[in-house]
Each structure stands twice: as structure tokens, then as C-alpha cells.
Amino acid sequence: MSLSNGRSYLAIPGPSVIPDQVLQAMHRPSPNIYEGELIKITDSLIPDLKYVAQTDGYVAIYIANGHGAWEAALSNMAEAGDTILVAATGRFGHGWAEMASNLGIKAKVIEFGTHFPIDANVMEKALRADIDQKIKAVLVTHVDTSSSVRNDVHAVRLALDACHHPALLAADCIASLACDIFEMDNWGVDIMVAASQKGLMVPPGLSFVYFNERAKIAQASLSRVSSYWNWTPRIAPEFYYEYFCGTAPTHHIYGMRAAFDMIRNEGLDAIFARHETLARAIWSAVECWASGNGKMRLNIQDEDHRSRAVTALSIGAPHGLNLRRWVEQKAGLTLGIGLGMSSPEDPKGDGFFRFGHMGHVNAQMIMGLIGTVEAGLCALNIPHGPGACEAAAKQIALAT
Q: What is the domain-level CATH number for residue 318?
């Protein structure tokens, strides 16, 4: 028998749950793309995009997923033959570096593994070793969705400043924007990439590249920038189509307007507090399960370095795979796969899984997630300790 009939819950770390308000805003006929309300709505998104990133800089909108944002940022910060430095704390740090290499950019990767954050001292040492200052940019991932580590981006800026290195600081905030605290201007970030399908609660299809005056000046020195990825026309379009280098992503724009109305209504501080509380509820539950002499453990041990948007954990192969399949098929709950977490002992990463708790999530959804996972642990006879639901409930009660 399956108990999965009813509304399913996609608890993966993106695409995230889409609010009904966003779905309803998108459920409409195609609009005029030459004049009228669509142009006004698009213009209205720019201040809100800057609000969630806490910046007074520029933002360019692309019809692309997060990988498109990576390539757009790279295309405006460096060119073939240039050198960049990439700090990797999971699959997505390596992915950005691989994309740079495919563009002919020399990507030097500093590997920090999948269980620990960036060490700013190691970054500073590498920058000091760059005596000729050939490194054009330093790329960091604020939250790596695969490992769920949250990196101290500001510490990397301080490392750059300490050795007076002129490299641009670029941050991937695809998993963290509007979930984990991020302050682009205060933290000295020159370029930031984000996407619509996670904390911004809109289906995949839009991505964003933020940049400041330093990055704008550096881009002007490049010998060429591809027509599509060039951010210059997108930030001050003479004609509406220049926002997108072609036809507008019409229905995504309506969805984004509805999402930003929700974000403005709740306020960033309240959004961050909600994500903090719900993340702590999950951590408390996992710690109870881990007390039962099994192999369950949080991937990031230091809570200061854990994302508030995604939690990666391990339970030993094949339990992770079996648990994911059980909760989806029997209870209508979809968990994230163990992306990029394979090891010699677990080559397919079947012992890992991830909880996505970003964007449009509330207490009852997280309590349902925890209760359903506990049911799966019981059904599959996976060793685990007691008290998870109670511990999570206490975290939520304390915060209200």
C-alpha cells in the first residue's frame, strides 16, 4: 500500500517549492512584449533584486539556469589565457572551475574537501604566492548545494585586502540568496551569481549576475565579450529586448514579481530567522537519529558552517538510496540525492541524501518531513535514536 496520494512535497535543494501566488501569477495569457505592463513590471524587479543581495551595484538578468549565470559571470570577468583561483568545498565549486577551463581560462583549484569550509589563511597564502598578480578573480561558493557547507565570503575579501591583491572576488549564491545572510556590498564582493529556482521561489529559467563598479571597469578591459553574455546592455537597456538579448521570459517575470511581493512583505530579517529556526529543527532531529548507534551524521559538523537552506547527511550505503525511494514511493516526499559525495567505499553516493529547506517552507512542512523520514527509518529497520520529532518541535516552540 502507498500513502503517497495527495499533494507531494519536493524537499530537494532546488527547484524549491513554488508558492501558489507565484503559480497563479504565471497562469495567464502571453502579454505584449513591446509595451505596457510587462515593461513596467520588469523595471520594478531591479530594486528588489538589489534588496535581496544587499547591494547598490548592478544586476543583469539572463534567461538561463545557474550554469548560465556561471558562464555569464566568467565571460565578463576573464578571457582565454587569464588565470582565476577557485576555492572548492563541493561539487559546485568544481563545476564553476570546469566551466572556466572549457572557456580557455586557467582555473587553479584549491581543494578543501566536502566536510569543511574555506580556510581564508590558505587562500591568502595562495594569493601572496601570486607575485606577478596574474590571478584575475577569486571564485568562492557561499553555499555549496552538494555538501551544504556555508563559507565565510567576507573572510576571503579580507584575505585579498591583506595582501593587496587586485583580483575580483566572485561569489556563487545560487543556493543561498534569500535564505542565508549575504551582504554583497558590506562583504566586498565584486561579482555574484544567483538563480530563480531556490530561495527566490520561481521555476528554473532565470539567473542573475550582480557586479559593482570595480567589476564593470575590469570588464571594459577585456578584448571581447560574447553578445549574449555581455552584461553592459542588460543593465541600461535602450530598448526593452536588451534586458534579455531577445524575447523576454514573460511568465517568469510575472512569477518573479509575485515572489518579490512575498519577500518584501515578510522582510529579509524575518526570512533569515525562519530559515535559521527550521534548519535548527532539522539538525536537532538528525542528532537524535544519530544517537542510535547507526551511521547517520550531518555532513558539516560545525553548525557555524552549515547552510540554513540545505542539509547534507550520510547514513551509510545503501540506506540513503533506500530511504529516499521509500519516502517518495510510500509517502509522497522527495529528498535530494547525495550529489558529488561518492567515495571509494560508496562510489555511487548511495549512503548520502539531502534535505532542501529553502524558500517557501514553514514549520508544519519541516515537521512533516522529519516525521516522514522517521517513518521510513522504522519501516526499513535502519538503526536510529529516538526523540527526533520532539527535539525538532522544541526548536520551533522556542523560536515562537
A: 3.90.1150.10
